[in-house]
């Protein structure tokens, strides 16, 4: 029952209540009714996907055409490849028996020419070795040394540089062989023939030789020498000057006496 002392509030929403707009505000839109998760959903509006599908198909087509063009470029032979293939085909073709025989004959001829050239070179080497061996052997053969007249010997002593290498038999008298000259050379007065007296040897000469060869030689000895002309030689004198004399290299030497 109603209390007459408390008037009843009007039913329904009143302006200014919680959740209700105040006076002068527009009313809020009604809320959607709550739908439970298990309730069937209304079908969505169909989406417009066809532009994406068409664009993808177009992109795949362009990519396929590009790959095909690249493969075609690789597969197409260039002019150099064509020429090389043609050369290879010519080289790999089967040769006729006549061509095989001609090729073998050419190879055999080249082989023979090479062997002939090698034989010639070896023959030249052997000839040079034989020549040098003969020269070396002749150095120790006393019969290969020249015996000169006094005049011819004087011409050699006058210009020894022009007579380098000549092999001579020389006679002499040793005038100096000491610590000043050293153990491998001495001074001697020489002639083309043996003399009875030391003062008759009148060509001042420097004679060189190996130490073993000259070990038994001393100043004052008379010697018979088998020599090669070495040219001229300049040395200092005891007076402070210089003198140039013939130089001989003794290969064999005999001491025949002493003064």
Name the shape in a single word.
Answer: elongated
On the 0-100 scale, what is the average pLDDT?
Answer: 82
CATH architecture of one domain: Beta Barrel
Percentage beta strand:
15-25%
CATH class categorisation of one domain: Mainly Beta
Query: Largest sheet, described in full?
Result: 5 strands, mixed, barrel
Q: What's the total number of strands?
A: 5
Task: Tally the helices.
Answer: 5
Structural class: alpha+beta
- The spatial strand order of the largest sheet comes to 1-2-3-5-4
Low-confidence stretches: none
Helix coverage percent of residues?
25-40%
Give a structural overview.
By secondary structure, this protein is an alpha+beta fold. Among the domains are: 98-140; 150-258, OB fold (Dihydrolipoamide Acetyltransferase, E2P) (Beta Barrel). Helices cover 37% and strands 22% of the residues. It has helices at residues 50-75, 79-92, 97-139, 150-158, 211-214; strands at 167-176, 185-191, 203-208, 221-236, 242-258. A five-stranded mixed barrel has the order 1-2-3-5-4. The longest helix is centred in the middle third of the chain and has 43 residues, at 97-139. The termini are far apart.
């Amino acid at each position: 029952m109603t209390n007459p002392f408390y008037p009843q509030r009007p039913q329904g929403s009143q302006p200014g209540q919680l959740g209700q707009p105040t006076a002068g505000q527009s009313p809020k839109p009604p809320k959607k009714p709550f739908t439970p998760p298990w309730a069937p959903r209304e079908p969505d509006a169909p989406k417009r996907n066809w532009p994406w599908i068409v664009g993808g198909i177009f992109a795949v087509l362009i990519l396929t055409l590009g790959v095909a063009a690249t493969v075609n470029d690789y597969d197409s032979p260039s002019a150099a490849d064509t020429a090389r293939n043609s050369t290879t085909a010519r080289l790999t073709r089967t040769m006729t028996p006549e061509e095989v025989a001609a090729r073998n004959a050419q190879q055999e001829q080249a082989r023979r020419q090479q062997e002939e050239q090698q034989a010639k070179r070896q023959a030249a080497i052997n000839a040079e070795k034989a020549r040098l061996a003969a020269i070396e052997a002749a150095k120790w053969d006393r019969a290969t040394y020249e015996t000169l007249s006094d005049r011819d010997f004087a011409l050699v002593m006058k210009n020894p540089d022009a007579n380098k290498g000549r092999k001579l038999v020389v006679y002499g008298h040793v005038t100096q062989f000491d610590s000043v000259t050293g153990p491998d050379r001495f001074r001697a007065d020489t002639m083309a023939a043996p003399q009875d007296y030391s003062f008759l040897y009148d060509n001042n000469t420097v004679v060189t030789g190996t130490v073993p060869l000259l070990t038994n030689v001393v100043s004052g000895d008379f010697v018979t020498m088998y020599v090669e002309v070495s040219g001229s030689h300049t040395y200092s004198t005891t007076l402070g000057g210089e003198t140039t004399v013939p130089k001989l290299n003794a290969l064999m030497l005999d001491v025949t006496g002493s003064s």
